[in-house]
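Posting this for the archive.
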Amino acid sequence: MDTTNFVGRYVPLDNRIFLTMTRSEIVHKIEALIPLNILSLYRRKKYDVLWSLQQFAYRRAVRKLQKVNRPLKVVFLTMYPSVWKYDSVYQLMQRDMRFNPIILVCPALDCEKDFMLKNTYETIKQFENRGYNVINAYDEKSGACLNIQKLKPDIIMYSSLWTGHTDKKYDHIALRKYLKCYVNYGFCNIGAEWGIASTFHGLMWRYFSECELNRQLAISLRPKEMQNMVVTGYPIYDEIMMADESSAGWKNNSSKYKKVIWAPHHTISEQLVQFSTFLQNADAFLRIAEKYKDTVQFAFKPHPQLLTALYNHPDWGKERTDAYYAQWEKGENTVLVSGAYTALFKTSDAMIHDCGSFIVEYLYTQKPVMYLGVNREEQSNEVGKRAYAAHYHGISAEDIERFITEVVINEKDTMQSVRNEFYQNILVPPNGKSVAENIIDEISKALNI
């Protein structure tokens, strides 16, 4: 039998196996038997139908909301403070009589339970400390998640496109009847369809874009679906502008210390993308921190999923990982930072990282930044290429130390003009307004409120 057009390998159907499989696993097993050209056509037609049904639901929802005479209930879904990019939007809605914003903290069900609970309660506490209206979606006693219909939302704001990490109740397909909006949880700088123009993006009511370059790229990939994109700027612009510097977390605010952030990504094993250089540099950063303890403070700002990745790594595990994190937390000139990071960015002098979103986000500070690892330009869109070109680049511990001594301590910053040009041409939001104002103006205009 010619299997050229088949995905995967042929597996005989066995009813006994199917009894122990999840619905998703059954679907994947059946799809493995379908020729690729037929499967691709089926998926395209299925999405076209889904998209049409979603547009019909949106038209009904808009007509309904245009007639209401009450504040619109806006429910923000989030799992981690680090993917929360709506602070300025929430605060502006909080002051606007037309809106009633609520934050629903969803559990990260793909993480270890103790970490999930710790993260959930810490996230809730951070929002409560800001005076926000926040609800815990997870009932620890029953292990169940809140049915969002009980909140009677009008608009749902997603913080992440990775809805599979939490309860399926909050999936964008399950919530078809509500107006759904999205801001990328990281400033999109890759050219891949999944990052900027996926089926998730296409099924949003409004997809708020960071800049015109990204909007044009998305439209080129999905001309029909990406008409839902509106250029508003990226909300971290607002957040850095209004960040409370006292909440940054540094141990010593003396001007004699330079403040450097190290932000490693979580992709330490082969995955869809692999950016992380943590395993190569973990010990080197602690040595460098000790060497420059009289002149530099270091903040360890790991991706929130790095902890779980290290727990599961054969050479690390929970004990070694916890001990390593504790070293950063207890060090004389080091801090461990989790959660929100805009104040940390604003008060820092430089950053070293290998993260995808930070390659653009830190440039909002216009301060020196080094990217560790391989050249990202093959994976990048035009914004990503320009952002990468505005970085210093390094691989080794020697490169890291050279950046700290020459650029940070001795202030020989040769990239400043490149960063400033990127900031003015790409990052400043349109219309002479804040990003939050642009987003709320678009919602208000679409609903005639």
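Residues 67-234+430-447 form a domain with the Rossmann fold fold (CATH 3.40.50.2000). The first strand starts at residue 72 and ends at 78.
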